[in-house]
Amino acid sequence: MQSFSEDESRELFPLSWLSQYGYCKRRCSLLALEQIWQENEYTAAGRMQHKRVHTRRTEQRGDSIYIFEMPVFSHALGVSGFCDCVEAHPSPSGVAIPYGKGKYTFYPVEYKHGVVRDEEEYHLQLCAQAICLEERFGVAIPAGAIFFIDAHRRDEVLFVQELREQTWKMAKEVSDMIEIQKLIPAVYSAKCKKCSLWEACQPKIRHSAQSYSESLWEEAIKEIE
Q: What is the Cα–Cα distance from 123 to 213, expressed in whole angstroms?
């Protein structure tokens, strides 16, 4: 099992931060280090759609079991969180689970709102869920899927070696960011226009002005301490 740290006593960070970091490193650092979160029409729509999915339950469909809002974690990866849905399909090569009889293989499914889009951060988040399940149950998970709620479409994601390596790399970067406790500078792009943290981020402020403001804030904190 791969691991970027032998320290299992360290605090695990939310698995969803991998997706945030993949979308925008600055956004993730504001969320993780400053606990800043603001909603807009896009995040509110996504939250309401996920609310219908995020009800912890299990459903039997034929021989398969569907586990919704399944808690997962990985000390090796350094994350904890939930899988929107884990499909457990009967297989002699699978493992026993407390939700049913016999042996099962797993197929994680992540729900996303909005139009269908091929976003790498979604694949990384889903791969992290698979790694958590593999660590817990000791079973190989070759693939999962992203389900786009509005389009009612499922896109399969293969957990190839390259994707797994990218997932480990990103998890380490997020963990290092949290340990260092330093905000990542803003880089303006088209994504900023729809970001709910626009006001807090101020991506169009010149880096020199931003650095100056941050230095003043750090000096003020030192005086207080």
A: 36
87 strand-pairing partners: 66, 107
* 121 closest CA partner among 1, 5, 19: 19
> If you ran DSSP here, which 8-state letter would residue 188 be given?
-
Chain Cα centroid distance, residue 49? 17
Joined together, the tokens standing for residue 47 give 């939250």
What H or E segment, with its residue span, contains residue 29?
A: helix 25-33
Packed helices 161-180 and 16-23: angle between N→C axes, nearest 10 degrees: 90
Q: How far, in Å, are 35, 68, 72 from residue 97 at the CA level?
A: 36, 14, 14
Nearest Cα neighbor of 43 from 26, 20, 76, 67 is 20
Of 81, 68, 58, 174, residue with least CA distance to 136: 81
> Which of 36 and 119 is assigned the larger pLDDT?
119
- Cα(44)–Cα(54) distance, integer angstroms: 15
d(CA 127, CA 108) in angstroms, rounded, equals: 9
- d(CA 116, CA 168) in angstroms, rounded, equals 26
Length of the chain: 225
Q: Taking a C-beta distance cutoff of 8 angstroms, is the pair 123, 141 a contact?
A: no
- Is the pLDDT at 171 greater than 70? The verdict is yes
Residue with tokens 């390259």: 162
49-71 pLDDT, tens digit per residue, is 555 556 778 999 999 999 999 99
Q: Would the pLDDT of 16 be above 60?
A: yes
